[in-house]
Design a protein that fits this description.
The chain is mostly helical. 66% of the residues lie in helices and 0% in strands.
C-alpha cells in the first residue's frame, strides 16, 4: 500500500502543473484526477516515493488527459454551428460522459505502465516471505543438533518438502514434512536420529546465503 494519500498525490500533481505566476494549466477537475489515480495506490508498496510515482506514471497520464480535454473543447468550439431555429437549443458537450470514458481508458494505460512496478513489488514481498520461512526452519533445525552429514540430509529434506507442499505452505508444515523425510532417509541407511554431542554440533542458524541471494536480486 502506498505511503502517501490520494489527497497528497492530488496536491502534488496540481503543483506540478502550476507555473511561477501561480497559474495552472489543468482543465480536468480534482475529482477526475482522484478517480483516475486512486485505484492504483493499492498497487504500489510503501517503498515507492510519491515523487517517483508522479514522474514515472501519474504526471504523464494526467498531462495526456488534460491535453485531450483541451483539444476536445477547442474542436467542439471550432466546429459548433448554431441552429437557425431559435427554439432549438445547441447540443451541450457531455463533460461527465467524457470523464467516464477517459477514466476507463486511463485505467488501462496506467495499469500497463504500473505492471513492471507491481511485478517488482510482488517479487520483493515473495522474497520477504521466503526469508521468514527459511529463518524459522533454520532456527528449528539448529535445535536438532545435527552432525554435518545429517545437516546436509535435512537440507535436502527441506527442499523436497517445499516441492511437495508448494509455495503457500507454512514454515511449520515444511519443517514437519522435512523432519519426517529426514528420518526416513536415516532409516533407509540403518541410522537413527539422536541429537549430537560436542562443540561443533550445536551450530547457530546461518542465513548469510539467503540474504546474499536477496541482495543479488535487488541489484538486478
Amino acid at each position: 500500500m502506498a505511503k502517501f494519500t490520494i489527497e497528497e498525490l492530488l496536491e502534488n500533481i496540481k503543483a506540478s502543473f502550476t507555473n511561477a505566476e501561480g497559474k495552472s494549466s489543468l482543465q480536468i477537475s480534482d475529482r477526475t484526477i482522484k478517480e483516475t489515480l486512486e485505484p492504483f495506490l493499492s498497487l504500489v508498496g510503501d517503498e515507492v516515493e510519491m515523487s517517483d510515482f508522479i514522474e514515472k506514471y501519474a504526471k504523464n497520464s494526467i498531462d495526456s488527459a488534460n491535453r485531450n480535454l483541451i483539444k476536445m473543447n477547442a474542436d467542439f468550439a471550432k466546429n459548433y454551428k448554431p441552429t437557425t431555429n431559435p427554439e432549438t437549443k445547441p447540443t451541450e458537450f457531455d463533460l461527465e460522459g467524457f470523464f467516464t470514458r477517459f477514466a476507463e481508458t486511463q485505467k488501462t494505460s496506467i495499469e500497463s505502465a504500473l505492471a513492471p512496478l507491481r511485478d517488482k513489488i510482488s517479487s520483493l514481498e515473495s522474497d520477504k516471505i521466503e526469508l521468514i520461512k527459511n529463518e524459522s526452519i533454520a532456527s528449528k533445525k539448529s535445535e536438532l543438533k545435527l552432525s554435518k552429514s545429517w545437516s546436509v540430509d535435512f537440507d535436502n529434506s527441506v527442499e523436497i518438502a517445499k516441492l511437495r507442499l508448494g509455495k503457500d505452505a507454512s514454515a511449520d508444515d515444511i519443517y514437519n514434512e522435512a523432519y519426517k523425510h529426514f528420518n526416513q532417509t536415516l532409516s533407509s541407511r540403518g541410522e537413527t536420529y539422536k541429537p549430537m554431542d560436542g562443540d561443533g554440533s550445536d551450530q547457530k542458524p546461518d542465513f548469510s546465503d539467503i540474504k546474499k541471494m536477496l541482495e543479488s536480486r535487488k541489484e538486478k
